């Protein structure tokens, strides 16, 4: 069993969750049960799946949960792009997209590394 708290991808994803919650707090209340909820759930899914994968005994299970985290990041990036496209906020979501892309690369590297074990 791995200690997820020692993984940089987990701590980076926790920081991303904080940034996402700050971002969604600035979106209009009309999106509370729409995009805001979906964005927050996708963000929370990333560290949660990394942690869950660390509890699994097999490397294959760990990789499966890393891939789920990766999928949540792609979903999150799409949702952030939607907020930009429909101009829901005057804030620029580029900083969040940069964090998402960096985390996607880190998780991808972790997947590649563990595939060869």
Could you tell me the CATH topology label: de novo design (two linked rop proteins)
Query: CATH superfamily membership, which one?
Result: 23S rRNA-intervening sequence
Average pLDDT, rounded to a whole number, is 92
Strand count, sense and barrel status of the largest sheet are: none
Tally of helical segments: 4
Portion in strands = under 5%
**Helical proportion, percent range:** over 70%
| Ends distance | 15 Å
Radius of gyration: 15 Å
- How many structural domains are formed by the residues? 1
User: Which stretches are low in confidence, meaning pLDDT under 50 for 5 or more residues running?
Assistant: none
Estimate the global geometry from the Cα principal axes: elongated
Structural class, by secondary structure, is mainly alpha
Q: What's the CATH C level? A: Mainly Alpha
CATH architecture: Up-down Bundle
Encode the helix/strand succession as letters.
Answer: HHHH
Number of strands: 0
Keywords:
mainly alpha, 0% strand, 74% helix, 4 helices, elongated, 117 residues
SSE layout:
Elements: H1 8-24, H2 35-54, H3 59-85, H4 94-115
